[in-house]
Design goal:
Blueprint lengths: L1 E2 L5 H7 L6 E4 L11 E4 L29 H18 L1
Parallel strand pairs: 1-2, 2-3
Length: 88
């Protein structure tokens, strides 16, 4: 998962290595440049849109310093894993 995927530049590099990428950002990248799957989300809002624990890797390049409340964002990311386990 590429959180804050921007234009998809990391996704493209990882796809060249046969990785499947889910990108999350508030602005969608161009269709031909973006990740395999894209979810539009404003990361400053409560609740992370996916179960972070269902991914092998979670990338956060240039994200923590961009959100209004880094602690709240990280809590919502951590809580997404807890909620997914509870719902199973």
């Amino acid at each position: 998962m590429d959180i804050g995927c921007a234009s998809g530049y990391i996704s493209r590099a990882l796809e060249a290595k046969q990785c499947r990428i889910t990108g999350i950002d508030q602005f969608a990248p161009a269709e031909d440049l973006g990740p395999d799957r894209f979810i539009k989300a404003v990361l400053d809002h409560a609740g992370f849109p996916l179960d972070a624990g269902s991914f092998d890797y979670v990338l956060l390049p240039n994200v923590i310093e961009q959100v209004d409340s880094p602690g709240q964002f990280l809590d919502s990311l951590r809580h997404s894993r807890t909620m997914a386990r509870t719902l199973k």
